[in-house]
Amino acid sequence: MNTLFSISRALGVKINYFFDEETIEDAIFTKRDQRKHVATKDKRIKLECLGSGLIQQGLEAHVITARKGAKSGSKGVSHLGDELAFCLQGKFQFEVKKEKYILEEGDSLLFKGSLPQQWENIGDGDSVILLVRGMEK
Q1: DSSP labels, 20-57
Q2: Taking the domains of the chain in order of start, what are their residue ranges?
Q3: What kind of fold does domain 2-134 have according to CATH?
Q4: Which of 65, 82, 87, 104 is within CB 3.0–4.6 Å of 134 for a Cys-Cys bond?
């Protein structure tokens, strides 16, 4: 997943660029089965976009489903804006600026996106996390 964030940063686009349609709206409603998603080549991580295309959109929200042992990448990534991680299922280990945090169902972590960060599913099965990220305007 760090690769996708790095590519978006290198291209100077928001990560939602990979999900966006041409329309720009005041309100976006997305049914559960209509979410746009991408998966890693090995299918160990699935990233679902919870909405994009809002006029002057100020945040990105994604649900990430990670198989046991899946990692965001081999090294930390950083970006502009704040980030909130909320564990919906399973168990994740987040490393933010070399500090480790264990998130289990219902736990959250709020941090500055400019800090190097990465995560790993350390649960016994699939784990699911909600990531909400403030975006650069």
Answers
A1: --S--BS-----GGG--EEE-TTSSEEEEE----BTT-
A2: 2-134
A3: Jelly Rolls (2.60.120)
A4: 82
